[in-house]
Write a structure and sequence with these properties.
By secondary structure, the protein is α+β, with helices and mostly antiparallel strands. 30% of the residues lie in helices and 22% in strands.
Length: 405
C-alpha cells in the first residue's frame, strides 16, 4: 500500500474548535489560560496535546540545555488564554507553515525564555494558570516557568487536553481507521517473516520497510520477546528486538506493533510459531489470548465502563485457567486503552482514576492481552471502533487469529 491517494485529513477548522473547547474548559476551572506542553524530537509518547491543538510536531532532538543559547530542545508549548487567543512556542524557526494551525507562532531556541515571554504577552504572568503536559515537561522547564512567572499561580491541569482528546470527531475516526489499515499491513509483513532461521531483526526490517514507504507513517516500536524469552511482553534491551538469535522450529514469536499514521496510532499484536506446527499447549495459549480479547470486545457497548471491561477480561482468564505468572503479570494488569495520539485514556483497568469512564460512541480502542503456559506466552491485540450507532467493528479482523496453521 502507498497511502498516497487515500490519506484522510483533519479539517483546518477542527483545530480552532479544539482550542475553543480547551479555552472554555480553562475558563470553567477559573484559569486565566493554559500553558500546554509536549515533547517531539523523534519521540512518540508525549507529542499529542500540542499536535491536537495546532498540528505542530517539533522534530529537533533532545539535547542538554545550554542557556541562554538554547533550552528545551525537542519540546514545544501552546499558550492559550481563557478567551481563546492562542500562540505556539517552538524551538525551531523553520516550523511547517503549511501544516501548523494556530493564531500566532513564536520561535525561540531558548524555549523556556520563549514560553515565559509569550505567557507575559498574553497576560498569563499573574493569576491562576493551568499547566497541561507536566508528565512531558522536564524539571528544568518547570523551574524556569516558576522563576520567570513569579506572580502566576501554576496549577496542575495535566489531563485537561487528554479529556478533550477522548471525544473523537468523525475526521479522527477516519484517521484511526486508516491507521489501523496501515498497522495491519505492517503486522502482516512481520508475521510472514516468522520462519526458522530468521530473527526478530527480519521482522523489524519488514515493518520498517513497509512503514517508511507510506507517507506520514512513523514506526514507534516493535517490542519482541521470542523463543525462550517469549514469556516476557518485551525482553528489556535497546532496541526492542534480538537480531542475533535465529528462530528454531517451535519458537513462539509475538511482535507488538505500534506507530502512527499522520499522528494517529495503530497498535496490534499477533502470534506465530516458527515452523507452523504448534504443540497443543501452544495452540491453547494462542487461542486463549485471542479468546480473551474477543470476549472483552464482545462485551463492549456504549455505557459500559473501563473497569467493567477489565472485569470481563479477568473473568475470562480465571475461567480458562490462565492464572500463572505469564498470563497477566509480566505485562501489566490491563486489557487495553482508547486510541488517539498515543495510548489514550481511559485504560481498561481497575484502581485507576478513569476506571469509571464509560465507553462512548465514536471511539477507537486497542484491546490486548498476553497469556502463557510453561514459561512461554502468546499475545493478541485488535483495534476496534465503536460506531456512532453503537455497533462495534473489529478493524483488524482480516488478520488471522491462528497464523500459519
Amino acid at each position: 500500500m502507498t497511502g498516497v491517494d487515500e490519506q484522510p485529513r483533519i479539517p483546518a477548522q477542527e483545530f480552532a474548535a479544539r482550542r475553543a473547547r480547551a479555552a472554555a474548559r480553562a475558563s470553567e476551572l477559573g484559569f486565566r489560560g493554559l500553558i500546554v506542553w509536549s515533547r517531539g524530537g523523534a519521540t512518540y509518547d508525549n507529542f499529542g496535546d500540542v499536535l491536537y491543538l495546532t498540528n505542530h510536531y517539533g522534530p529537533f532532538p533532545w539535547i542538554n540545555d545550554k542557556p541562554p543559547l538554547w533550552s528545551g530542545r525537542s519540546h514545544s508549548a501552546v499558550v492559550l488564554t481563557a478567551d481563546g487567543a492562542s500562540e505556539l512556542v517552538t524551538d525551531v524557526t523553520d516550523w511547517r507553515a503549511d501544516l501548523v494551525n494556530v493564531d500566532a507562532v513564536h520561535a525561540d531556541r531558548n524555549l523556556y525564555r520563549g514560553v515565559i515571554d509569550t505567557a507575559r504577552k498574553h497576560g498569563l504572568d499573574e493569576g491562576d494558570v493551568g499547566l497541561v503536559g507536566l508528565e512531558a515537561m522536564p524539571a528544568s522547564a518547570y523551574r524556569a516557568l516558576v522563576a520567570g512567572l513569579p506572580a502566576a499561580n501554576l496549577h496542575d491541569a495535566d489531563d485537561l487536553v487528554m479529556q478533550l482528546r477522548m471525544e473523537k470527531s468523525d475526521a479522527e475516526i477516519a484517521m484511526l481507521r486508516y491507521s489501523a489499515k496501515v498497522g495491519a499491513a505492517i503486522t502482516r509483513a512481520m508475521m510472514e517473516q516468522v520462519e526458522p532461521g530468521n530473527t526478530d531483526g527480519d521482522l523489524a526490517a519488514a515493518a520498517l520497510s513497509i512503514g517508511a514507504r507510506i507517507p506520514g507513517v512513523a514506526q514507534w516500536d516493535i517490542p519482541l520477546a521470542s523463543g525462550s524469552c517469549s514469556g516476557h511482553f518485551q525482553y528489556a534491551r535497546l532496541p526492542s528486538w534480538d537480531a542475533a538469535t535465529p528462530y528454531a522450529i517451535g519458537d513462539i514469536v509475538h511482535p507488538d506493533n505500534y506507530g502512527y499514521a499522520n499522528g494517529y496510532i495503530y497498535d496490534i499484536v499477533r502470534t506465530r510459531v516458527a515452523g507452523d506446527h504448534p504443540a497443543d499447549w501452544q495452540t491453547e495459549i494462542i487461542d486463549g489470548a485471542a479468546g480473551c480479547v474477543r470476549a472483552v470486545i464482545g462485551a463492549m457497548r456504549v455505557g459500559i465502563t473501563a473497569g467493567e471491561l477489565f472485569d470481563v477480561g479477568k473473568a475470562y482468564l480465571i475461567e480458562n485457567g490462565f492464572t500463572d505468572e505469564v498470563a497477566f503479570n509480566t505485562s501489566f494488569p490491563c486489557f487495553g486503552h482508547q486510541d488517539g495520539h498515543a495510548f489514550d485514556d481511559p485504560w481498561l483497568a481497575r484502581n485507576t482514576p478513569d476506571e469509571g469512564v464509560a465507553v462512548a460512541a465514536g471511539t477507537v480502542w486497542s484491546i490486548e492481552i498476553q497469556v502463557g503456559r510453561n514459561g512461554r506466552a502468546a499475545g493478541f491485540e485488535d483495534m476496534v471502533v465503536v460506531n456512532r450507532d453503537g455497533s462495534v467493528e473489529i478493524l483488524t479482523e482480516d488478520l488471522p487469529v491462528r497464523w500459519g496453521y
